[in-house]
Design brief:
By secondary structure, the protein is an alpha+beta fold. It has a single domain, classed as Thiol Ester Dehydrase, Chain A, CATH 3.10.129. It is built from three helices and four strands; from the N terminus they run ααββββα. The chain has a four-stranded antiparallel β-sheet. A hairpin with a 5-residue loop joins β3 and β4.
């Protein structure tokens, strides 16, 4: 993804909270590639995914107009949660590592926002990717 002016502070450096936005987009696209759309999961299964916790390490700054690659890998799953390792790097020769993070998402019942088991068909697709 490209860093836009709106992603940066007055010095042209990506504002720290925006790394979470980049990671969110990568997880959403990852789910999409597996065939899962967030709105369809809500309509069909009455579930949604929400961030439960996040821990990030900022290594180097991203800057205006940088092209970034954002990865996401499931490193752990529980009955109602997934833990992702995510890496943000500046595209180009050598992939300049900028930020790493671990994000845990919870599967919730959309009606009451209570934890709910991740549907088996989703876990199967995730297992096939790992």
């Amino acid at each position: 993804m490209r860093v836009y002016y709106e992603d940066t502070d007055s010095g042209g450096v990506v504002y720290y909270a925006n790394y979470l936005r980049f990671m969110e987009r990568a997880r959403t696209e990852w789910m999409r590639v597996l065939g899962f759309e967030q709105d369809e999961l809500l309509d069909r299964d009455g579930i949604l995914f929400a961030v439960r916790s996040a821990s990030l390490d900022f290594l180097k700054p991203a800057r205006f107009n940088d092209l970034l690659s954002v990865s996401c890998d499931v490193v752990k799953h529980g009955r109602a949660s997934l833990t992702f390792e995510q890496v943000i790097a500046r595209d180009g020769a050598g992939q300049d590592l900028l930020c790493t993070g671990q994000v845990r998402i919870a599967c919730l019942d959309a009606a009451g926002f209570q934890p709910q088991a991740i549907p088996e068909y989703i876990l199967k697709e995730i297992a096939d990717v790992r």
